[in-house]
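Hey, I was hoping to borrow your eyes for a little while. I'm sending you its amino acid sequence along with the backbone structure tokens. Take your time with it, there's no hurry, and the full record follows here.
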Amino acid sequence: VTLWSNPGETVLSPFSGVGSEVYGAVYLGRRGIGCELKKEYYVQSITNLESIGAKKAPTTGVLF
């Protein structure tokens, strides 16, 4: 994510699984879009993304 995108850009993860790529994008100041067919993985990805709210991005110091 860091190598191929810049803060503020959108990262697409067409097979997002539990959302680790989208998580990394949002955590680093990007927008993330993920697609997942398995409901269990989708639910876990939402849980993972909600946990970002209390964390700081290491390179930007921005709260999400």
About this structure: The mean pLDDT is 87. DSSP finds two helices and two strands in the chain.
